[in-house]
Amino acid sequence: MVAGARGGCAQAGAARRGLLALLLAVSAPLWLQAEELGDGCGHIVTYKDSGTMTSKNYPGTYPNHTICEKTITVPKGKRLILRLGDLDIESQTCASDYLLFTSSSDQYGPYCGSMTVPKELLLNTSEVTVRFESGSHISGRGFLLTYASSDHPDLITCLERANHYLKTEYSKFCPAGCRDIAGDISGNVVHGYRDTSLLCKAAIHAGVIADEVGGQIGVLLRRGMSRYEGILANGVLSRHGSLSDKRFLFTSNGCSRSLSLEPDRQIRASSSWEWINETGDQVRWSPGQARLQDQGPSWASGDRSKNHKREWLRIDLGEKKKITGIRTTGSTQSNFNFYVKSFVMNFRNNNSKWETYKGIVNNEEKVFQGNSNFRDPVRNNFIPPIVARYVRVIPQTWHQRIALKVELLGCQIAPSNDSLVWSKTSLNTVGSTNREDETILKPIPSEEMPKGLNVITIVTPLVLLVLLVAGVGIFVVLRKRKKKGNPYGSAKAQKTDCWKQIKYPFARHQSAEFTISYDNEKEMTQKLDLITSDMAG
Ligand SMILES: *[C@@H]1O[C@H](CO)[C@@H](O)[C@H](O)[C@H]1NC(C)=O
Ligand SMILES: *[C@@H]1O[C@H](CO)[C@@H](O)[C@H](O)[C@H]1NC(C)=O
Ligand SMILES: *[C@@H]1O[C@H](CO)[C@@H](O)[C@H](O)[C@H]1NC(C)=O
Ligand SMILES: *[C@@H]1O[C@H](CO)[C@@H](O)[C@H](O)[C@H]1NC(C)=O
Ligand SMILES: *[C@@H]1O[C@H](CO)[C@@H](O)[C@H](O)[C@H]1NC(C)=O
Predict the structure, then answer these.
(1) Does residue 369 sit in the same domain as residue 323?
(2) 218 C-alpha to center of ligand 5: Å?
(3) Do 171 and 134 lie in a common domain?
(4) Atom 13 in ligand 4: which residue has the minimum CA distance?
(5) 464 & 511 share domain
(6) Is residue 477 within 8 Å of residue 12, measured between CB atoms?
(7) Which ligand is the nearest neighbour of the Cα of 418?
(8) How many CB atoms are located within 10 Å of the residue 234 CB?
(9) Could you give the number of structural domains in the chain?
(10) Is 464's pLDDT higher than 90?
């Protein structure tokens, strides 16, 4: 049926191409509408073992006349667990608004309205197609779904809060993709989180799991505090919170102590800022001032030009250590509003080359979200940890001037097992070995972005235009067929097929930034094993 419909669509598209192209040229807004109508998917993050998926605009109202269809899988041989965190679809009949799961052997749903919906489904397959469709409606949040393989029967959704559980100690599995789901957390990793905080988001904030991957969390419930601090960590902002009865902490692997540094011997930088103040004294913002625990001005770079992305601050730990996080501040001086907004990390051992720290999922340089003012410390965690003697912070964007204080978190390495971490992942080499302090780094590629972007901005509209022409053609012909009474089923089904054709190019284009997929699963397994064993230890 699908194939037949598509053939017909394509023909009609050709026939009407001239007219439609003209039409489209004058009515660009039409495309936008097509895009909205065709794509009802919202936030989607998939990892090989778990993931999160919502309807468009969740938790806001989902749009009229949309479809979201996606097939999710876990490794072959495992069973899929689906957990619905939220379902709010405005329909009592499920005729035009519904959520439906279809596997090779079973169908679950359609679900809608006020019907009782199972919170959790354990399928006997490793693959399921999720389909959400909306007609015309006024309200409704749509849905939030998480999934995992049957290896994780303690899967929770991104919406579970600590006050949903009464036990004082428990373990749960957080799926990939909870970071960007709406909902508050308050507190921090050291003192604990208010019990009203979302568990999985707090775990990402705490550096216990990476958003792209998810993972097991261990939770301890404790007596509450009168006030909870709000800070930025791992790209998640926790808010200030008031007195609560209970708070929670995460069980830790014990590898997040502050690594001590001797300022003059162990911290170097590409340049530093010096100037003469009004009383004729020389004021230095030297690398030795880059320790977070020290009072006074920070390190600042000599160069304040925007495009000079080769400044660095280098720390020598004296020996190879396991580094699980970094805390940074800006200048800490109210009259010098300087701070680093984003940075990347390099690391190396005695005689090896500098390597770039990469994201856990894609093979790209990981850009960390840094400070948003000159004063407050911001934490970022390395999952998996860096194991190295030297690390280098390379600012990418900053406010006014590069100014940094840092603290590294981590521990001594256990004698045996650590080499596994980085040898397998073989990271990018960005610099030369010897004189690394003077001659540095090839320019970091971000400088070249504009060229690539230009190409994309030219090509994409062309491609979209062509697809749209075809798509509208398809739509028109199907409507005609319907009038003639064709054998392919209901009008809605046809519309669906055609919309699908229009939808896909847009959907891909649009969801690229949300959907995370894998290239190298074997490698990931090794890294994950490591994380898991870390957390257990
Ligand atoms: C899966 O479950 C359905 C019923 O729920 C059953 O009919 C089917 O045979 C099962 N398939 C497998 C592979 O176990
Ligand atoms: C859907 O369309 C109806 C009628 O045009 C309108 O009243 C309603 O607000 C729309 N709903 C949404 C979610 O846009
Ligand atoms: C100039 O710098 C010196 C040494 O850091 C300091 O003692 C003095 O107060 C500064 N003067 C002004 C006007 O800031
Ligand atoms: C690196 O150098 C330090 C001091 O120079 C030395 O103690 C250590 O054994 C060296 N490590 C390796 C792996 O060569
Ligand atoms: C090394 O790893 C093995 C299993 O991978 C584990 O049993 C052992 O305890 C680890 N040793 C250390 C020192 O962490």
Answers:
(1) yes
(2) 20
(3) no
(4) 350
(5) yes
(6) yes
(7) 5
(8) 23
(9) 4
(10) no
Token look-up 């899967």 returns 155
Q: Is the CB of 417 under 6 A from ligand 5?
A: yes
- Pair 176, 267 in one domain: no
Q: Ligand 4: distance of its center to the CA of 412 in Å?
A: 14
Question: 488 in helix, strand or coil?
Answer: coil
Amino acid, single-letter form, for residue 41: C
Residues 212 and 349 in one domain: no
Contact yes or no for 214/177 (Cβ under 8 A): yes
Name the closest ligand to CA 533: 5
22 C-beta closer than 6 A to ligand 5: no
CATH number of the domain that residue 213 is part of: 2.170.130.20
Among candidate residues 218, 250, 282, the one where a domain is terminated? 250
* pLDDT single digits (tens) 155-181: 999 999 999 999 999 999 999 999 999
Predicted TM-score (pTM) above 0.85: no
The answer on 221 and 270 residing in a single domain is no
The answer, yes or no, to whether residue 154 has pLDDT greater than 70, is: yes
Name the residue of 347, 349, 350 to mutate for ligand 4: max ligand atoms within 8 A of Cβ. 350
Determine the residue type at 330: G
State the residue for tokens 């840092």. Answer: 406
| Residue at 415 is within a domain | yes
**Is 200 within the bounds of a domain?**
yes
**For the residues of 148-175, what is the DSSP string, one character each?**
EETT-TTB--TT-BGGG---SEEEEEEP
What amino acid is encoded at 313 in this protein? Answer: L
Q: What is the pLDDT of residues 93-106, one digit of tens each?
A: 999 999 999 999 99
Asked if residue 12 belongs to a domain, the reply is: no
For residue 508, how far is its CA from the centre of ligand 4 (angstroms)?
49
**Domain span holding position 105:** 34-149
